[in-house]
Amino acid sequence: xxxSILEFIKNTVSEQNVLLGEPMSRHTTFRxxxxxxxxxxVPSAQALEKLVRYFAKVSQEYFxxxxxxxxxVGDKGYQGVILNIxxxxxxxxxxxxxxxxxxxxxxxxxxAVAAENGLSGLEFAAGIPGSMGGAIVMNAxxxxxxxxxxxxxxxxxxxxxxxxxxxxxTMEFGYRxxxxxNRPFVVTRVCLRLKRGNAEEIKxxxxxxxxxxxxxxxxxxxxxxxxxxxxxxxxxxxxxxxxGLRGFRIGGAQIAEKHCGFVINVGNATSADxxxxxxxxxxxxxxxxxxxxxxxxxxxxxx
Length: 303
Ligand SMILES: Cc1cc2nc3c(=O)[nH]c(=O)nc-3n(C[C@H](O)[C@H](O)[C@H](O)COP(=O)(O)OP(=O)(O)OC[C@H]3O[C@@H](n4cnc5c(N)ncnc54)[C@H](O)[C@@H]3O)c2cc1C
What we know:
Bound molecules: flavin-adenine dinucleotide
Distance between the termini: 20 Å
Structural class: alpha+beta
Helix content: 25-40%
Number of domains: 3
Strand content: 15-25%
Oligomer: single chain
Number of strands: 18
Number of helices: 7
CATH topology of the largest domain: Uridine Diphospho-n-acetylenolpyruvylglucosamine Reductase, domain 3
Order of helices and strands: HEEHEEEEEHEHEEEEEEHHEEEHE
Shape: globular
Radius of gyration: 19 Å
CATH class of the largest domain: Alpha Beta
CATH architecture of the largest domain: 2-Layer Sandwich
């Protein structure tokens, strides 16, 4: 790593926010992944903009991480800079039926604030353990809800650090899909438009979704939630179960017995273990049913 780039980062975010050789297993919900050469805890939107502009100028590779809840980082780690958008950019503001939410705000917290303010539309998100930014990129969704339904606009930085406001249509939201999956924009904040409702009912709905999750999903193990996208006309978990892979294990990674759509870390899994279980499920399902399972999980770095 170029010393002057490191110096610039330290001067911009202060030294305590820069971690060198940081294990990504500490920052992913799979609890796997090797070291990031430089891991930056972004302290503010201003610092983020400064870094993005600078990285464009010096052609420094970087990758934005929120809660790491949909991320598989290779065991050999990532050689560039990780920009972690978290508590330094987690403001939530409520005005009438709108919420302005910074990208680092945890989604369950955003859903809770909406409920407290009698705003309906985010109940589905109460148990999705991502950040607001990650939820936008992935168009996170559950129980017939998705971010697309509540987004009014998204403020992003372009690769050059230029701020742009994208309306919901421009975001090209689809199933676990948005324009940002194909374009290197960084989400900085989001304007949500919700509906007025009864605070108690909104809270109860979110809680009932969470109870369903606890009943159906192996939440007691590290994972990234559903590992695969839902193939049209099928359920990934059912296909994997029917392929005889319930409980299938490589190293510390396993197809969950409770829900075959989840690959879980049952103890000391490596990212290669997780990847290999994913590949095995893909091959067996393709062989037996002719259906291609596409991972929902994002892969990063060297395996
Ligand atoms: C137990 C469990 C249950 C889950 N249930 C669901 C569910 O019901 N529905 C669902 O859709 N998902 C679910 N997920 C997956 C995950 O929580 C979501 O995809 C979430 O939106 C990811 O957010 P994140 O902040 O963790 O993103 P990360 O994993 O940190 O990143 C995911 C992608 O988003 C990008 N990204 C993150 N933040 C930004 C930003 N500010 N700007 C630009 N790019 C950014 C990253 O570069 C990466 O490409 C679940 C995961 C777990 C562990």
